[in-house]
Amino acid sequence: MDYNNKTVWITGASSGIGEELAKQFAEQGAKVILSARNIDKLNQVKDELKGEGHRVIPLDLSKPETVLQDVSAQIDSLGPIDILINNGGVSQRSLFLENDFKVYRQLMEVNYFGLIALTKAVLPSMVARKSGSVVAISSVAGKVGSKFRTGYSGSKYAVVGFMDCLRAEVAQHNIHCLTICPGSIKTAIAHNSLNGQGEAQNKPEPSIENGMNVNVAASKMLTAIYNKKDEVVIGQGLSGWAPFIKRFFPSLFNRLTAKVEYK
């Protein structure tokens, strides 16, 4: 793979999948724009990247209108964006009957509207050049549902639907759209997942702790982008097979998910 001198913008780049994607793209010669809320962590990641020309642009995806306004105002000065990776997001581990309504608002603002806002700001310049890739990191939870994830899964289903429509709309402009649905990947996602009151639960989850190594997952994502795939599921074990089981054995899948009790 050769991403030499390509500019790749990654949200959620301060940790987890986003951080690892930044490192691997930089290793391939790309210039990376790092975005998240924590500017100190972003600068730390930037300092660890191979190569030159990397930049930090702090963004708060929970304020999508601000993202749209601020990025639109500076997009021309940033130069061509070759690949936009909408990775930033937050998960949830709580039962519907126990959730405050605000939790659903939080999840949709970050996972869905934040993604739309940044894409809205960046995509026109790609269309003008008739070149570029828009990548959305959804989730296996955006293909199948399970307990404790009504808000998270709903927001990630929305991302899958949005990307399906966008792909159809911009195909005529030679824009590549890829939806990536990770399963259980070893990151801090479980620790940062929202509880029923919209606060981080700050505890591990066995399925995540035993999931795919983040460096392996990121490598598979780079390959999918390079090969211009439309949609890929990246995971091991049940998290990787879940969409297949749901599609071909829906009744079995529904019975299994009803018995699952881990968060």
TrEMBL record:
The keyword Secreted does not apply. GO terms for molecular function: 2,3-dihydroxy-2,3-dihydro-phenylpropionate dehydrogenase activity. Transmembrane segments: none annotated. Coiled coil: none annotated. InterPro entries: NAD(P)-bd_dom_sf, Sc_DH/Rdtase_CS, SDR_fam. GO terms for cellular component: membrane. Signal peptide: none annotated. Gene3D superfamilies: NAD(P)-binding Rossmann-like Domain (3.40.50.720). The gene is hcaB. Keywords: Oxidoreductase. This is 3-phenylpropionate-dihydrodiol/cinnamic acid-dihydrodiol dehydrogenase. Belongs to the short-chain dehydrogenases/reductases (SDR) family. Pfam families: adh_short. Its EC number is 1.3.1.87. The lineage of its organism: Bacteria, Pseudomonadati, Pseudomonadota, Gammaproteobacteria, Alteromonadales. The keyword Oxidoreductase applies. NCBIfam families: PRK06181.1.
